[in-house]
Amino acid sequence: MTETLDPAEMRRILEATPSTLRHLLGHLPEDALAFHEAPGTWSAVEVLRHLADGEAHDWIPRARVILSDGDKRFTPFERERGLQVYRDWTGAQMLDEFQRLRDDSLRAWTALGLSECDLSAQGIHPEFGPVTLGQLLACWVTHDLAHVNQISRVLVRRFGQAIGPWTKYFSLLREH
Hints:
The chain is mainly alpha-helical. It has a single domain (about 5-175), classed as Up-down Bundle (Four Helix Bundle (Hemerythrin (Met), subunit A)). About 60% of the residues lie in helices and about 5% in strands. The protein has helices at about 5-25, 30-35, 45-55, 60-65, 80-85, 90-110, 135-160, 170-175, and strands at about 120-125, 130. The chain starts with 6 loop residues before the first helix and ends with a helix.
């Protein structure tokens, strides 16, 4: 079953993500933010770099393509570009940058003046083909929540290394 989500509900989640991440990460030292749960995985600060890059190059730019009168094809998104663009930025700098970029995105959302009809407007994803604005917005929210979950998991695995026998009570520590 496919459910159409309420844009106001989605926007509230998107508005909350930067402060959620700031509360979770803002007090931690850089070594905690740089912790990798396994080789080839992203640290918390790398996730922040990816999120910031998505604000600049993914969500609102694609919404504008969908709502434009022109070419509906999306530019491919380079998932790891933010890791390079923000390579030398600290966790605190990334939290500030993500907040700034998200605020810009939400102002742009308001400026788009989205209506219920707009949610069915389509763009062309380079891999999936036709996608709707509603799907894009739902993906944006899902993306935020998935990365909040990922960051939480990384922190569980960092601190969980030191809990000794209590490991048996934490599935996230047994899986890894």
